[in-house]
Amino acid sequence: MTTYQDHQYIEKELSWLSFNERVLQEASDKTNPLIERMRFLGIYSSNLEEFYKVKFSDLKRRILISKEQDIPGASYELLKKIQKRVLIFDQELNILYNDLLLEMARNEIFLINERQLAENQKIWLRHYFKYKLRQHITPILINPDSDLMRLLKDNYTYLSVEIIYGSEIKYALLEIPSDKVPRFVHLPPELPRRRKPMILLDNILRYCLEDIFYGLFKYDIINAYAIKMTRDAEYDLVTEMESSLLELMSSSLKQRLTAKPVRFIYQSDMPDVMVNILRNKLNLSKYDSILPGGRYHNFKDFINFPNVGKAHLFHKPLIQLRHLRFDRFLNGFDAIRTGDILLYYPYHTFEHVLDLLHQASFDPVVLEIKINIYRVAEDSRIINAMIHAAYNGKKVTVVVELQARFNEEANIHWAKRLTEAGVHVLFSAPGLKIHAKLFLISRFENGEINRYAHIGTGNFNEKTARLYTDYSLLTADARITNEVRQVFHFIANPYRPVNFKHLIVSPQNARYSLYRLIDNEITHAKKGVSSAITLKLNNLVDKGLVDRLYTASSFGVRIDLIIRGMCTLIPKLKGVSDNIRAISIVDRYLEHDRVYIFRHGLKTKVFLSSADWMTRNIDDRIEVGVAILNPVLKKRIIDIIKILKNDNLKARFIDQNLSNRYVPQGRRRKIRSQIAIYKYIKSFAQVD
């Protein structure tokens, strides 16, 4: 294998920030409905918060470890590059927010601040504060003994209050309780005008500062400034060997609550003295992100910006499509037995999967259900189906991934509920997450056991199935179901060897299988046979796989990449990646499915997978990819990928400069892939 130089890769952290810039581009795109643009501000903010909790925190730890052990490695210069880019993007966000406020005003939607209140609204707000809000407000007084490291929460924004009386200054913090009271509050009509504005919860507190502190302190002037802190989201699983994973995760979540801060944002006009007091109280260092910001933080709440104004200001929902085969049969298992079924969300409805599991919970000939859950909905119908199946005497095994980041607490809750219902609950080994999207249902039919399997690219989650693009393959093909059965055996005994022919299973055979598939195309290209690889992934960062793609390109294999997030591979490097084209698509739905296509001559192999091409997904998780054996379904996936590759409205090039240039339309007709895919699926919805 050729050895490639460091400059032939993009740092994954900078590549991730480039992805989030694409989200910000959607907020600035005037072809998007106005309310949806506001929501993209929320998505950008939510993404950035997770970046700091995870990727920035990991980089900081690597820097500190390498410094302590005098090991060259993680770069402080990279950390500074991150800070610089985030500062630029955040400034763009604040400018864009103000522009959107003006645009909303032109559309008779008014999000006002505390200085713009009419007299009748001031009276109403005093009443609202007294009866709806005051009970949730407890000032945190800042004094020499205040332990802000322990008191501040990283999912909240605060007002830092400066209380001035003569030459004396006191400080306090107010938590903005957006988990208990709506962040967006509708005000009564402004009199004598009839418009109905909204106000942010932050500004209600700003207006009611005197109501909060009256009688507590004497003051001449009282000011409030927005701040937000983000903590490291990692946790330490090292403890006594006899502790169960359930106990380990419960203990580790408590660590996260008091983990060290890695980011501190403060309102840019906050006095320097105040900034320094808070910085010292939070024990922030030069390795942490300390950035001035605007008047509002926690823009992630804007994801839920209300549908206000005229209908054209937000997306009209696309009606989710039903698969006709399920409507032709009263029994979902009969539908699957007639041939493999492929669902593509959110274009197809997730109800088919929910109905199938519900039916299995009381079907008298169902003997056993096995399923693994990673992130499920808050009120999961799937969990309820598994509980009812156990009540109905079915043998039910649920593999619960307790290490699913930010879903650990919910999954601990589900594990306890399932266990109480008599469900056999399995957990992964510490450090070996189970990210596969499987279920297996065994039925006793005509004197023999037949099995039905689900292999997907996304979670069993009713909510995200309306927002994320993902595939579900439902099959009764014994070639697949027998291997899915082996995966569940592997999950129960992860160190026992197993063999797979039609499945790509991490960490069992994934790296070897993917190398072999790429090398196969290289071999055919060397023989002069037209060879191509197409990959649709969330992230492409594994060095071994990137290097293999570079080598394939150098031998003439044409490679098309559709990468939503991080991509450390650099396309179009002379002599290295001349034959690689990479795009990223950000639109109304989150592109989440993973597809691998390998072609030479007239032969094509297509795989759906739960795994991105990251080292953790290939070597350190249990992931499952499946070969599509049905030629009709294989063609449909290829057709959908072709539509995505031809997108010229929402596709951006991935390049060395992280420019996020839009793919030019030229003289071609406009293709917005997500809308085109919906129309494509709808075109055969009545013939399946």
TrEMBL record:
Q: Which InterPro entries match?
A: PP_kinase (IPR003414), PP_kinase_C_1 (IPR041108), PP_kinase_middle (IPR024953), PP_kinase_middle_dom_sf (IPR036830), PPK_C_dom2 (IPR025200), PPK_N_dom (IPR025198), PPK_N_dom_sf (IPR036832)
Q: Which SUPFAM superfamilies does the entry link to?
A: Phospholipase D/nuclease, PHP14-like, PPK N-terminal domain-like
Its cellular-component GO annotations read: polyphosphate kinase complex
Residues that bind ATP, according to the entry?
A: 47, 468, 564, 592
Query: Which parts of the sequence belong to the Polyphosphate kinase N-terminal domain?
Result: 9-111
Could you tell me what reaction this enzyme catalyses? Answer: [phosphate](n) + ATP = [phosphate](n+1) + ADP
The Polyphosphate kinase middle domain sits at 121-305
**What's one GO MF term for it?**
ATP binding
Reported cofactor(s): Mg(2+)
What does the UniProt keyword field contain? Answer: ATP-binding, Kinase, Magnesium, Metal-binding, Nucleotide-binding, Phosphoprotein, Transferase
The residues responsible for catalysis, as annotated, are 435 (phosphohistidine intermediate)
PANTHER family attached to this UniProt entry? POLYPHOSPHATE KINASE (PTHR30218)
Q: Which family does it belong to?
A: Belongs to the polyphosphate kinase 1 (PPK1) family.
Q: What is this protein called?
A: Polyphosphate kinase
Please give the organism: Candidatus Erwinia haradaeae
Tell me the classification of the organism that encodes this protein: Bacteria, Pseudomonadati, Pseudomonadota, Gammaproteobacteria, Enterobacterales
